[in-house]
Specification:
Elements (H helix, E strand, L loop, with lengths): L2 H27 L10 H18 L9 H9 L4 E3 L2 E2 L2 H25 L1 H4 L7 H6 L8 H22 L3 H5 L11 H14 L9 H13 L15 H20 L3
Antiparallel strand pairs: 1-2
Helix pairs in contact: 1-2, 1-4, 2-9, 3-4, 3-7, 3-11, 4-10, 7-9, 7-11, 10-11
Length: 254
């Protein structure tokens, strides 16, 4: 196993995540789509399936797809990310760098899939909403709290899952591809429960990478990229992920 393999695995997985995740949002909010107006729960399920698919294809790297997960694993005291890849500055940078690159690529692919719909007129903020999150009530401090809590739940439960069944015993084969189903359902649950205030980024790469794509892609009448809010879905998830990793050592005994 090499860092190059890790980079490719995380890049491909995160690209799949954003292609499907941004795609389900586009299908719900862009003009003249087949899924227009199908609602928040449809988006939650779409993101859950997007994570499921992304985790499956990034099996070599462990399917982090999220800097908050990577930093949560680091904070938990893990010595290796996957067998043969030690936790150190180079591997951390490789994971996080690949996640941002993959998120940018995936968002760009989603734009290509819905190109003719992006070319239509839309209310202010709709086109940006395909790429990145935004609050329903803008309060930077409380929006950050929401992102901290949502990401804490994500990372804490993912770390807890490592103590269960096949994950804990390292049984060969185990549940196979269904092993990724748990995190997919977790994403749906977090969205349904905690996604209302901010749209639940719970992933710095998922928000910032596509926000950059929105800024540079030639989208007609796209409006601004809301950079004044962009730090919230980066800082909040990082704090939540690190807190989950630190507390896992006390609250999730081996």
């Amino acid at each position: 196993m090499t860092l190059g393999t890790i980079f490719l695995s995380e890049t491909v997985g995160t690209a799949i995540l954003l292609l499907l995740g941004a795609g389900v949002v586009a299908n719900n909010i862009l003009p003249k789509t087949k899924g227009f107006g199908t609602g928040a729960l449809h988006i939650n399920w779409g993101w859950g399936i997007a994570v499921f698919a992304g985790v499956l294809v990034s099996y070599k790297s462990g399917g982090h797809l999220n800097p908050a997960v990577t930093l949560g694993v680091v904070a938990s005291g893990a010595k290796e990310f996957v067998p043969g890849i030690a936790v150190d500055a180079a591997s951390i940078a490789t994971y996080i760098g690949a996640q941002f690159v993959g998120a940018f690529i995936g968002a760009t692919l989603a734009w290509l899939a819905y190109k003719t719909h992006f070319d239509q007129d839309a209310p202010d903020g709709v086109k940006l909403g395909v790429f990145s999150t935004g609050p329903e009530i803008r309060s930077y401090a409380w929006n950050t709290v929401t992102e901290i809590l949502g990401t804490f739940v994500l990372v804490f439960v993912v770390l807890a899952a490592g103590h269960w069944g096949d994950s804990a015993t390292k049984t060969p084969g185990g549940l196979g591809w269904l092993g990724a189903l748990g995190v997919a359902l977790l994403i749906v649950g977090i969205g349904a429960s905690l996604g209302g205030p901010t749209g639940y980024a719970i992933n710095p790469a998922r928000d910032l990478g596509p926000r950059i794509a929105h800024a540079v892609l030639p989208i007609p009448n796209k409006g601004g990229s809301d950079w004044s809010y962009s730090w919230v879905p980066v800082v909040g998830p990082i704090i939540g992920g690190v807190l989950a990793g630190l507390l896992a050592g006390f609250l999730l005994p081996a």
